[in-house]
Structures are given as structure tokens and as C-alpha cells.
Amino acid sequence: MSPKTDMDIEIPPPGTGSRRERAEGSVRLTVMRQDAPGGAPYWQAFEVPRYPNMNVVECLMEIRKNPVDAEGKRTTPVAWAANCLEEVCGICTMRVNGKVRQSCAALVQDLEEPIRLEPMEKFPVKRDLVIDRDRLFDAYKRVKAWIPIDGTYDLGPGPRIPEDEREEGYWLSRCISCGACVDACPQVVTDADTPFVGAAPISWARLVNIHPTGAMNAEERYDALMGPGGISDCGKAMNCVEVCPKSIPLMESIASMNRQITRHLLVDWLKE
Questions:
Q1: Residue 18 and residue 100: Cα distance in Å, rounded?
Q2: Cβ count near 201 (within 10 Å)
Q3: What per-residue confidence (pLDDT) applies to 14?
Q4: Structural domains of the chain, with CATH
Q5: What Å distances lie between residue 199 and 107, 163, 225, CA to CA?
Q6: Which of 15, 45, 150, 204 is buried most, with the most CB atoms less than 10 Å from its CB?
């Protein structure tokens, strides 16, 4: 038999390859879908090829490549959001089997099937699994979780930060603004006039208060957190700690800000 030439080699069609050849069985999913903001949600079942070490995002990619439901009917691709796929950006956060988490870090092999995918509950749904995060960023604005520097003047080198405070700030700065802590918090009631800001904005207020420049505006953050929907609304359920993908000590942040606010009020009282 003569050896094969380049003309004899069969070229696989696009989208195939070693990973597709290693598919074993299928993964069953049920996805809560919503066609438009304010639309009625409904469930739709899917089956996709199963690959080794597959995560939920890959399941959604398979549905996008072949938008056919479990009954074999053509449908629209599921809308979802993802970016880094490394549990860094936070945008792929959703409810997986009832628990809010990063879908890129949710391995199929560790999940009970059919895998149930839902959008986060405390945020308005744009479509399917895509939510509007403005509520979280509005909370950041409410507690003034930033350092107001306009960069107009050269102020020279900034103050040195003690090592213990720098390390404390590092752990707080790991927050990826995914919104998981807000979604899991039973105190966040979406129809309230001024809903509870949630753990992440409070922790960010603590972070900027640690910085010597940010501390110059600490009183503004205290006043904001003492207002409606502020720190007093925390019920200390600790759900935020359970779901935080970065293991940020959120309850420590809430306790720290409580102490700072109490000290602020006591100093003001003594001044009168």
C-alpha cells in the first residue's frame, strides 16, 4: 500500500477536532429564559455534548453553536455574558442549581443534573441570563466608594501606607463587583424605596477609608452609610461570606465600618 499524500488526508469540518472526538454522552440543562426586559420568564431544557472538565460556560457555548432544545426544536441561542473565564471579571455570575456563583468556575462534573441555570434575582433581567448591574454601581455611588482626585495639581509623592494596612487593603481590593453578595443577601429587597446597599459597597467604602487620601472624605461615607438602606439594614445573615468567590472578609468590613461610624458619632457628640 502506498503512503498517503496530502491529497488523501481528510480535512475535518470547522468546529471539529480532538475535543469533539472525546465527547462522551450529554449534559442536561434547564435554563430560565426571558425574551425581553419585563417579559415573562419560562424554562427551556437542553442537551449538549459532554466533554472532560467542562464548565457551565462551555455548555452555553454549545447551545449557541447549535440552538436546539432537548426536544429537537430549533430555538434562539441563550443570551449570557462572560469575559475572562478565569473568575476575575465577575460578569458570568448567575444562579447555578439555586446557588449564585461564577459559571466559569462551575464544573459540570461537580453539579447535579439537570443543571438549572437562572439569572440573579436581585437585578433586572435584560434577556435570559444577562442582568443589569446598575443597581450595584448606584450603591457604590451612594456610599461614595471612590477617592475624589481630579489630577489638576502635582501633590508630590503620596503618603506611605503601613504594611498591615496595605495588606488589609489588598484583600479588600480583590472584589470583582460580581454582585453575588448582593444577590444572596436576604436584606436586599428590590421593591424597597431605598434598598440595602449590600456588602460589596460597604467593603469598598472600608477600602478607600484605609488609604490616607481616601480617608480625607471618610465622613461623607459615614453619612451615606447612616442613611436609608445603609449599614444598619444588615441582618448579619453572612450569606455574602458564603458566596463571595474571592473569600473577602465581608462581615469584617461591615463590623469595621460600624466601629468607624460609632467613633465618628461619638466624636461629633463630644464636640457639641
A1: 33
A2: 30
A3: 47
A4: 18-131 (3.10.20.30), 134-147+158-271 (1.10.1060.10)
A5: 27, 25, 12
A6: 204
